[in-house]
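ok so i was messing around last nite and threw this chain in just to see what happens. nothing serious, just curious
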Amino acid sequence: MPDTTTPASPKATSSAAKKTVRPRRASSAGASKARATAARSSGASKSKPAAARTNSTRSTTDLVGDYAERAVLIPVGAALLARERVVSSVTDTISSYSSPAKAQGQLRKFEHRGSAARTRMEREVRKTRTRVERERRQLDQQRERITKEVTSRVEQTQSQIEKTQAQIEDALRARLEEGADLANRVQERVLSLV
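result:
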C-alpha cells in the first residue's frame, strides 16, 4: 500500500486515496459473493425464511461496514483536499516571487491597485464635497429668500401700523377740535343767555 501521508503531488494524493478505497470495497463485495457462492455450492438445503434472515443480516452488516468506512474516509478526504489547496496557494505565492523581475511585477500590480483605489476615493471625496457645497448654497439661498420675505412683511406691517396710527391720531384730533368747537358754542350760548 502506498504512503498517503506525504504524497509527491496533489494528483498522486487523490489517486492514492482512490486506490486505498477501492480494494476495501472490492474485498467486502467479493467476500459477500464468495459467501453466497459457498452457501449455494454446499448443498445444504435451508428453508426460505432462514435464507432471507441470513441475507438481511449480511446486508445490514454490509451497510454498517459501508457507513463506518465512509465515516473514516470523509474526514481523510477533506483533510487531503485542504492540504492540496494550501500547497497550491503556497506554490503560487512562491512562483509569484521566485525572481526579482516577478517580484517587481507583483509590486507594480500592487502599486497600480493602490493608485486606482486612491483615485476612486479622491473622486468620491470630490463628489461628496461638491454635493455638500451645492446643498449649502441652496440653504443659503433659501435663508436669504426667507429673510427678505420676513423683512418685507415686517416693513409692510410696520407701515400699516403707522398708517393706522396716523388715522387714529387724525380722528382723535378731529374729535378734539369738534369737542372744542362744541364747548365754545356752548359757552357762547350760555353767555348769550345770561
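not much to say yet. The helical segments are 10-41, 48-96, 100-193.
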